[in-house]
Amino acid sequence: MGLGSAETSSFMGDFLEKCGGYGVVDGGFATELERHGADLNDPLWSAKCLISSPHLVRRVHLDYLDAGANIITSGSYQATIQGFEAKGFSKEEGEALLKKSVEIACEAREIYHDRCTKDSLDFAENGSSERRPVLVAASVGSYGAYLADGSEYSGNYGDAVTLETLKDFHRRRVQILANSGADLIAFETTPNKLEAKAYAELLEEEGIDIPAWFSFSSTDGTNAASGDPISECASIADSCKQVVAVGINCTPPRYISSLISSIQKVSSKPVVIYPNSGETYDARSKQWTRTNGVVDEDFVSYVGKWKEAGASLFGGCCRTTPNTIRAISKALSENSYVTN
């Protein structure tokens, strides 16, 4: 269901108000699938589970809802029609799998709300029997995520990859996800300005009328992964009328505060942040190394600082768990501001 432009601009503000001023996004997806026994050693990565074990995908969504998430993201980050075709699926089968990623998330929300309705104890804490607002975001990973060669972490796609290459690559996937029943599209781990521009132009050209957010990754606290200044990336997102939040994900926690400031210099849209645990990913060995990873309690100690810096939506990316999200949710409710 599409929104008019006035509704789009107030979409996230209205949602945040219903949440009590701040919203909680879910956490790491692939890590949790692996914890439940999925083998993700595959170019499709977490999207493989849409084929082999959709029940695990639903289980992870439910774990995050139980932990307090207001926004759950579909398992489509690494799901592309091109990627499915490379594994022998037809175009139609690939499109059906993309839709399925959102359907599973919507199912999880329904199960969660049914459970809450039956068990009003879930609401005893805040003394209200109102259902916690939950949005389903359709996840779109970068072109580099599809390549599965580590370039999503550098944003260096080479001179052969143009704005048109990126728009053509993402076009059909974005059309499908926009009509899948999701509440918004989350363009995640965007490593460079070029891809942000491709997304913004695609949304415009295709007349996509569901809200979106753009979130960027950074390795230094100033620039996107490619070296493009975060302020320039955020400006592109800000100028796109479908974008209802701008943010940072898949980035070490220590860089987040300065990145929030950079975004706020160029945008007054709500800021969404969902960093990694702080560990480092080695694209060659496809392993996480525990350099200066932070445990859940430490990660959550940042939340107050990020809130002060101006963020409105908080979650986790790689290697964060439902425990992280539960702790964030608790930290926000303990010192949440009260809406008049």
What is the number of E strands? Answer: 10
Structural class determined from secondary elements: alpha/beta
Helical fraction = 40-55%
Bulk shape: globular
* Second rung of CATH, namely the architecture: Alpha-Beta Barrel
**Segments where pLDDT lies below 50 for 5+ residues?**
none
Number of individual domains: 1
Full CATH superfamily name: Homocysteine-binding-like domain
Broad CATH class: Alpha Beta
CATH topology: TIM Barrel
* Biggest sheet layout: 8 strands, parallel
Strand percentage = 5-15%
Query: How are helices and strands ordered from N to C?
Result: HEHHHEHHEHHEHEHEHEEEHHEH
Rg is: 18 Å
Task: Give me the number of helical elements.
Answer: 14
Strands ordered across the widest β-sheet: 1-10-7-6-5-4-3-2
Keywords: Metal-binding, Methyltransferase, Transferase, Zinc
Cofactor: Zn(2+)
Protein name: Homocysteine-binding domain containing protein
Organism: Trema orientale
